[in-house]
Amino acid sequence: MINVEGLRKSFGDNEILKGIDISVAQREVVVVIGPSGSGKSTFLRCLNGLEKASAGRIVISGDEVTAPKADIHQLCRNVGMVFQRFNLFHHLNVLDNITIGPRKVLKKSAEESRRTALELLAKVGLAGREASFPDELSGGQQQRVAIARALAMKPKVMLFDEPTSALDPEMVGEVLQVMRQLAEEGMTMVVVTHEMGFAREVGSRVVFMDDGRIIEQGPPAELFANPREERTRAFLGKIL
Amino acid sequence: METIIEALPQIGYALVRTIEYSAVGILLALIVGQLAAFLKISRLSLLRAIAGIYVELFRCTPLFIQILFIYFGLANILPLHRWFGENYVWIAAALSLGLNEGAYMTEIIRGGIVSVDRGQKEAAHSIGMTGFQSMVYIILPQAFKRMIPPLVNQSAQTVKDTSLLAAIGIGELIYTGQIIVSDTFEAFKIYGLIAVCYFMIIWPLTRAAAFLERRLQIDKR
After folding, report:
1. Does B221 reside within a domain?
2. How many domains, chain B?
3. Nearest residue, CB atoms, B129 vs list A87, A88, A105
């Protein structure tokens, strides 16, 4: 589903990603962990074209994102993204936040977009909130709307960039619950998170990144119990 | 009282001129300002430079000299009167006013656009919107709400600035007032009346700005 080869990304002289190679199969849930500044977020942002790769190849569902003439906006429709700070459209109510993509980008009818949006809202546990504005919702509710917004584009892959890091602790669970459900339905997911419980429970693979490289990866049970690399051990020792 | 009543038709006519030039000036300034603001946030440094030069040129010289330069100065080196005939005076008036106020509007509009959180654009990108779509559907609607109060203030300024058009013989309030005073010597009454005229145009504008500002603070959407 996702194939990344030799991905490098620099900002000026500062090389953030120093050669990432990874493949993600369909229905796989890959959880990316690592210290801050290790390049996790940049990696995710390269996958949906928010950052332009300096070198390397990214192929998602058969389309090369890094091709010189790639229509990045077309490719983006296959890739949903959920942000740390939700980034709901403040001037639109919940329904319009979810339907604006299908209506304006996919050119779906208002009625069809509305129906899909209401189904998705029910799915993320927010049925009846379609008329609310983002600033009337709690962080957890906003993030669930953001997930619905991404799903409305019928993506083949969902990327989550620290989706619970900006939430109050009591709201983390409701967002993780929605993500867990998505994983069970077979969505291909790449999740950057500090929620080790989620990684252990839902992740099909855990990837440990440090200093712009993938240091180690494997099934969660294995990686958490017997990390091979010293750096992984040190990191896990600090956070577990 | 008699003087005022006699002057009323002339002043009424001049009031309409002032409102006309204000409206044309504001409209032109908004169009020019919007275009220059887009240039200023462009990825191409050449376009940014062009907009930058325009803004600084018009902000760092007085409107008065701009009016004189465009009407008299340019006509000195180009056969503008032959091309446009009598129309050139109002073209020059509208152009100098629109370009001058446009420079200030550029900064207001640009400021409004860049004040919208980056994450909004990223979210628009993530649902497949093109740069143009995200500007139209996501960024501008949010930016516009923040721009309204300063844009209204700048519009009030534009109304006052039409008074400088008297220098090239546009029959607006100041020009007309000076003519009446030179005939009647009733400076107190006539200039007082003209001040009232400006007040009647601008006061509702500033009220509207204050109202919008309050409303937008309560209702952050």
Report:
1. no
2. 1
3. A105
